[in-house]
Amino acid sequence: MFNSIKKISTKYTGLLIRMDDITECMNWEYMNRCESLFDKYAIKPLMGVIPINQDPELLNFPKNDKFWERVRTWQSKGWEITMHGCNHLYTQRSDKKDLFNYGGNSEFYGLSYDEQLLKIKTGLEEFKRRNIKVRSFFAPNHIYDKNTLKALKECDIKIIIDGYGLFPYFYNEILFIPQLFYKEIILPFGIQSTQIHLNYWDNDDFNKFEKFVEQNLNKIISYDDAISKVNKGLKIGVINYLIKNILKTKRVFFN
Ligand SMILES: [Zn+2]
Questions:
Q1: SS3 of 25, please?
Q2: Burial, 209: exposed, middle or buried (Cβ in 10 Å; 0-12, 13-18, 19+)?
Q3: How far is the CA of 138 from the centre of ligand 1 (A)?
Q4: Fewer CB within 10 A of the end CB, N or C, for the chain?
Q5: Residues with beta carbon < 5 A to ion ligand 1?
Q6: Phi-psi category of 18—alpha, beta or left, where left has phi over 0 and alpha has psi -120 to 50?
Q7: In angstroms, what is the span from residue 84 Cα to ligand 1's centroid?
Q8: Ligand 1 center to residue 58 CA distance, Å?
Q9: In angstroms, rounded to a whole number, what is the distance separating the alpha carbons of residues 237 and 244?
Q10: How many angstroms is it from 2 CA to the middle of ligand 1?
Q11: CA-to-CA dists, residue 173 to 9, 36, 37, 133, 168, angstroms
């Protein structure tokens, strides 16, 4: 067992930088600083863009009127643009029967299939209108139900950057790239994404992140790297299963 874990660990290690709550109104000071850092080290993060943000909390942050131009620039640099909900409004509440049994507020949970399909279509149309290509999704607050997955598949979105596990895995014909920690912690092996909320950062957070990036450059991967490392093998399935329940109890909640 140990040897096979070691073999897998050498081949399959990587961390995708997932940036959350990217929208017109956000903490642009830290976004600018992160962009310089990413450019310096040729890092290609995954940008979780809210296409039609209506979340009152997020609307309080400074607005960038040239937001979509900026998103197109990111895309032209090879950064991956992903859809983070449609309007980021928490109109729903999960009773812990959601996909990951988290419970908590949601934009999608409990809505009918048609309502969720409309939300996803509306969001995707906004990206299309702005000339942005989108191949993946992650929901606000990690909350999904079966209709969310069905609606995503109907719109040909079959990759979600969320969930438990040490490695990407398939569930319900969707590839999940797990997102394990709020803080950027590198495990000895595995392929996961971070979640980074710039809106709550101060100078100290940025400095820590910069140091973390510089110390882990060889482990930071792009979206395409993560997809190419996908392995549906039994060993990975077993390890994912073993680790799932341990992590479930230790998870830090953040939307
Ligand atoms: Zn969010």
A1: strand
A2: buried
A3: 9
A4: N
A5: 21, 140, 255
A6: beta
A7: 7
A8: 9
A9: 10
A10: 37
A11: 25, 37, 36, 21, 13
- Residue 36 identity: S
8 Å CB contact between 164 and 178 = yes
Report the distance separating Cα 127 and Cα 81, nearest Å: 10
Inter-residue contact 81 to 71 (CB < 8 Å): yes
Q: Could you read off the pLDDT tens digit of each residue along the chain, which spans 255 residues?
A: 556 655 555 567 889 999 999 999 999 999 999 999 999 999 999 999 999 999 999 999 999 999 999 999 999 999 999 999 999 999 999 999 999 999 999 999 999 999 999 999 999 999 999 999 999 999 999 999 999 999 999 999 999 999 988 888 889 999 999 987 656 566 667 888 988 999 999 999 999 999 999 999 999 999 999 888 775 444 555 556 556 655 655 554 443
User: Parallel, antiparallel, or unpaired for β 174-176 and 179-181?
Assistant: unpaired
Query: What's the rounded Cα separation, in Å, for the pair 74 and 64?
Result: 15
Token reading at 11? 């081949």
CA of 52 to the centre of ligand 1 (A): 12
Cα of 234 from ligand 1 centre, angstroms: 33
Distance CA 252, CA 255 (A): 10
